[in-house]
Amino acid sequence: xxxxxxxxxxxxxxxxxxxxxxxxxxxxxxxxxxxxxxxxxxxxxxxxxxxxxxxxxxxxxxxxxxxxxxxxxxxxxxxxxxxxxxxxxxxxxxxxxxxxxxxxxxxxxxxxxxxxxxxxxxxxxxxxxxxxxxxxxxxxxxxxxxxxxxxxxxxxxxxxxxxxxxxxxxxxxxxxxxxxxxxxxxxxxxxx
Length: 192
Fold this sequence. Notes:
This protein is an alpha+beta fold.
């Protein structure tokens, strides 16, 4: 009887393959695309001299309609990027997209940076520079015109771009706005 138990336990075990467990695990698909926009070396003056750290600006997006921005500091570059990615994932916003472009033009000022976004015809591509292009690339928008005015601070431009994308109103809401308001007015008059 003891032989039967040992036999079943040895038979149920899978034969060990060469390689580690990490290689055997299937790679999980990434939910968000991460892009490092900027890395700065920042210093703090202390009694013994200067202490250097790194500041990372990271944007994450799912390529459909979600985007987030994160800024964080770390002792080394990898730590700063990891922290900034976590911050960006916590601050994800959903944006309105109309096919491959945005539903309407918008202009937003965030501190010193001012960003203007306009919808573009299919086949135009993303006409944007530097930081704005990096943010738009992870959103799933394929056609867009933009202009960055004012400050050239990369962090402020990134935040201004996300604020501009957040301010977009879906096309069906502003197209039928007059009908909806008329229905609300009629409904309120009927209840009186």
